[in-house]
Automatic annotation (TrEMBL), chains A, B:
SMART domains: Pro_CA. Its EC number is 4.2.1.1. This is Carbonic anhydrase. Reversible hydration of carbon dioxide. Its cofactor is Zn(2+). Binds 1 zinc ion per subunit. The lineage of its organism: Eukaryota, Fungi, Dikarya, Ascomycota, Pezizomycotina. Keywords: Lyase, Metal-binding, Zinc. InterPro entries: Carbonic_anhydrase, Carbonic_anhydrase_sf. It comes from Trichoderma harzianum CBS 226.95. It catalyses: hydrogencarbonate + H(+) = CO2 + H2O. It comes from the Eukaryota. Zn(2+) binds at residues 44, 46, 97, 100. SUPFAM superfamilies: beta-carbonic anhydrase, cab.
């Protein structure tokens, strides 16, 4: 019998664990006198993206990777507030990508589909799902949001960067 | 002079791109007759976690990786609504981890820190930042939320799974 989804998942994870490199606990890091100085990367959930790979992250970089549909800053504003206070947030990097699903649906259509199932839930009328028209502009819009939101201190928004990731070439292009 | 943060980032990405394996566009996938049947993995932004690595994901798995502080389901409910309609969402996997920062801060402290800076922003009083007391219980709580939220259709919540990832061993332990 073919292995189930669950069995495949657990088996792959066991294989991974054989060469797993254990990370220090937060207490161990602090005992070593290591100060947290984190970078929050906000990018898309798309299964064609592997940000740890295309950024070649190393644990000592302290790159927190936040992922939501399209990689929008709006849903991540509270994370920025949290990490500003809790994990020494230094900067934010916004990375949207070419051929993103975010440009292929409309928020209104998603609302409509759920309203037909849940007609009494009027709060759905106000839901935003992250759709955008043009990928460079969506990065610009999100950088603007970082710079104008009262929730983001200037020392963090001043260090923010924006990029478009090309799924065909694997390259990041900066967005001014 | 040492390379700047920006230069290091771009240089590492260029190195990655040399062996980048281009992914098909959504249009190319659909032309091949490939139906979207996605799995949404919800996990933490922690820099000690590399979910694509510990799950040994393959592009054909169509694992959408959503990451927020602690990997809570609450902030991801709208994503589930989106992917239910837009990308053929089949199941949700919740993965919290040992030594998570989520158990080391209190939502009230984060609110307090921002209220002292933004005293006129009373909406901060209602903000939730994802803190929890115990990691297995937080997975259980989030599985319960999946099963009881009106936004999540039963065919999806019935397929949901929960795990704790151990940062020391790299292993996933299922949570019932």
């Amino acid at each position: 019998m073919a292995p189930s989804f669950y069995e495949t998942l657990v088996e792959r994870n066991k294989q991974y664990a054989e060469t797993h490199n254990p990370a220090p606990t937060i207490a161990e890091q602090m005992a070593l006198g290591r100060v947290f100085e984190t970078t929050l990367v906000i990018t898309c959930v798309d299964f064609r993206l592997n940000p740890d790979q295309f950024l070649q992250t190393k644990p000592e970089d302290q790159f927190l990777i936040s992922r939501n549909p399209a990689g929008r800053v709006g849903p991540a504003l509270q994370e920025i507030m949290l990490f500003d206070v809790f994990l020494g947030l230094k900067r934010v990097i916004v990375i949207h990508h070419t051929d993103c699903g975010g440009s292929q649906f409309k928020d209104a259509d998603i609302r409509e589909a759920h309203k037909s199932r849940l007609p009494d839930h009027s709060e759905i009328d106000h839901m935003v799902f992250g759709a955008f028209d043009e990928v460079e502009q969506s990065v610009r819009d999100d950088l603007h949001l970082l710079k104008t939101s009262p929730y983001v201190p200037k020392r963090i928004s001043d260090q923010s960067l924006g990029f478009v990731y090309d799924i065909k070439t694997g390259l990041l292009t900066p967005v001014e």
